[in-house]
Amino acid sequence: MPSGLPPSARVYMDANATTPLLPEVIEAMRPYWMEHFGNASSIHLPGQQARTAVDSAREIMAGFFHCHDAEVVFNSGGTEGDNTALFGLLRPGDHLVTTSIEHSAVLQAAQRLAERGVEVTFVPPQPSGVMDPAEIRSAIRPQTRLISVMLANNETGVLQPVEEIGEVSRAAGAFFHIDAVQGAGKVPLDVRRIGCHLLSISAHKMHGPKGVGAMFVRRGTPLESLLVGGSHERRRRAGTENVAGIVGLGKAAELAMQSLADGTIDRVAKLRDRLEAEVLRIPGTGLNGAGSDGKPVARVANTTNIWFDHLEGEALVIALDLKGIAVSGGSACHSGATEPSHVLMAMGLDKTRARASLRFSLLKTATDADVDHVLRVLPEAVEHLRAISPVAAGTLG
Ligand SMILES: Cc1ncc(COP(=O)(O)O)c(C=O)c1O
Predict the structure, then answer these.
(1) From the candidates 333, 335, 394, 395, which is the catalytic residue?
(2) According to the 3-state scheme, what is the secondary structure of 296-322?
(3) pLDDT tens string 198-222
(4) Closest residue (by CA) to atom 14 of ligand 1?
(5) 389 CA distance to ligand 1 middle (Å)
(6) Are 229 and 239 in contact (CB under 8 A)?
(7) In whole angstroms, what is the distance from residue 50 CA to residue 41 CA?
(8) Alpha carbon distance 152, 302 (integer Å)
(9) Please, what sign has the CA dihedral across residues 110, 111, 113, 118?
(10) Are the C-beta atoms of 175 and 198 separated by less than 8 Å?
(11) CA 172 to chain centre
(12) What's the mean pLDDT when you consider all of the chain?
């Protein structure tokens, strides 16, 4: 990593990739690696201490989701939750309705199921990035067993109309899964109001530890477990519980609920809005996630995704990194080749513009000084890259 800068001079605006633990989270987790290291399945005192910690975290998560304690299943994170929802419900002959802007944890699970005889429909978004519930409804067939739609898109932050899609699923008698990995902690969750059967989240996107997450599984949902080999989590997820991780997730969820209530998330939205408005003053830029009126659609508070004409997004990501700013671009590396983002392409951007898009995703601890630093550095970096860019010279398509 090229950086001769002191850590304090670095600005991290890639929260949708991952977030650091908050001090309260690591403090809550600390005892469960050494003093209270017991296995939550053991009946002796150390085991009981671990069980009590897992039970308390489960209660917090039930409050976070607005469900019953028995409907919370701890797992290893978003990828596992998404895989469990799809592989646990779908069999050859079933039909899945999902979207073309899902995270690869859903897309690739769907593709594998398609190879195994499950029919899959990938519904595209509107150019704004918002899914139209009527389009989801039109994709329904008699064999539709599951609808899987994300709450917030990881690249654009665009929020999906999950309550309306919940109504579509109810009318169709289909199960409904929500990948809420990028929405959790940024908007309130209420699984009863949404009317979903399954919902997955991940701790590391909301200032909790990596490698732990949770799922809401509505009582009575006939979900086959992905992992077998133990009766953990009411037989829904085998494997010795990651007690410290689960405690960390619980604490992160508690703090996330506070941040939603105490104005922290509104403050992040204001910072994001200031950043966005200023960046969009640079000529040859535009917002990914705007409606036909040019105004942003409903999004999570911390994310903005902006295209910059006449440059390569990856070059801008590197230029900003050299100046101490971490953001991410609109391309992903697949098997060594850089592919433009499938999300931006599904929204109708051309390849060049998708490649020239940047995602800024703010931590909830972001400050005015962070935004000021980006606004000091970015216009000059854009100007410099445009001056030397093969895209601007028309020698790179
Ligand atoms: C929308 C979405 N779903 C799922 C995942 C996967 O979560 P995890 O990293 O916990 O496996 C991510 C991670 O980037 C995500 O953004």
Answers:
(1) 333
(2) ECCECCCEEEEEECCCCHHHHHHHHHH
(3) 999 999 999 999 999 999 999 999 9
(4) 17
(5) 33
(6) yes
(7) 8
(8) 11
(9) positive
(10) yes
(11) 27
(12) 95
**Ligand 1 proximal residues by C-beta, below 6 Å:** 77-79, 82, 103, 105, 150, 154, 179, 181-182, 202, 213
Note the Cα 267 to chain centre separation in Å. Answer: 20
How many CA atoms are closer than 13 Å to the CA of 108, on its beta-carbon side?
6
Helices (H), the chain: 23-29, 45-65, 78-89, 104-115, 133-139, 162-172, 191-194, 232-235, 243-261, 264-279, 313-322, 342-346, 351-355, 368-388
Q: How many CB atoms lie within 10 A of CB 237?
A: 24
260-290 exposure pattern, b = at least 16 Cβ within 10 A, e = fewer: beeebbebbbebbeebbeebeebeebebbbb
Q: Is 196 a catalytic residue?
A: no
Share of the chain above pLDDT 90, in %: 92
* pLDDT surpasses 50 at 4: no
348: left (phi over 0), alpha (psi -120 to 50) or beta: left
Among 235, 106, 248, 278, smallest CA distance to 177 is for: 106
CA dihedral 271, 273, 279, 283 (to 10 degrees): -170
CA separation for the pair 249, 265 (Å, rounded): 19
pTM score: 0.95
Cα–Cα distance for residue pair 186/181, rounded to 1 Å: 10
Return the pLDDT at 2: 43
